[in-house]
């Protein structure tokens, strides 16, 4: 089969499309014929040498979408439409950047849809991260307000759309003034230009601050996001678009505003139940959930796709169509 192989960390050109042996699943694992996969920031971290749990050489990719090719344990029927994500994919064992991938059955979620493969391929990890951040990390409720910091990332777009669909007033940020209108088109109530002082902008509109905030940029802007949040509100740290992951000399009383809660989310496929995934997929298919795909690549274009992801040039999801 054809697969993207990364022998060691390096620039985008380190991702080589190669001919490799098709993997064989053992009991409890499932082989998937991959039709499409989305790109994720953690795959950039792997390629750039920032991943701590990776082995090399490796086929990257923390998600994949396609059909079951073989399931020795009988967990799924051959030909069944599925998505797979996380569980060590693309780091601890070979992932989704391939024509076939073998993953633990627990990382596989069934789905039924007539969506084209590229659209379905954009959804699994993006929806899992957005859904888990909103419900596990933040515990959102209809009628609340939410700030999405890093709103034009794929997860930021999905989180804003899901929050709006579930009855929240949505604030969302971008550093590019040309993207403010795109956020409005997605249904964001208050698109904000991120000038480093988002808290002041939020409190001009909501003097008490937002009920919830999703941090996707990193620890470099986290103090400002905390300041934008109301007393008894919650900030969920999920993303690190800036590659700023840690807080030096963290002193909670000096760092956290009074009464503002800080949580985090780093999920698995089990955090997106099949019923929730199917509901979201059905909403996308019905045109009621406007998920944005920036562009679709062929497998041979993986290096260019990574270059665009690393440069932050995409608005929404980057997808690779395998076949």
Automatic annotation (TrEMBL):
Pfam families: ADH_N, ADH_zinc_N_2. Residues 10-320 form the Enoyl reductase (ER) domain. It comes from the Bacteria. The keyword NADP applies. InterPro entries: ADH-like_N, ER, GroES-like_sf, NAD(P)-bd_dom_sf. Keywords: NADP, Oxidoreductase. PANTHER family: QUINONE OXIDOREDUCTASE PIG3 (PTHR48106:SF18), QUINONE OXIDOREDUCTASE PIG3-RELATED (PTHR48106). This is Zinc-binding alcohol dehydrogenase family protein.
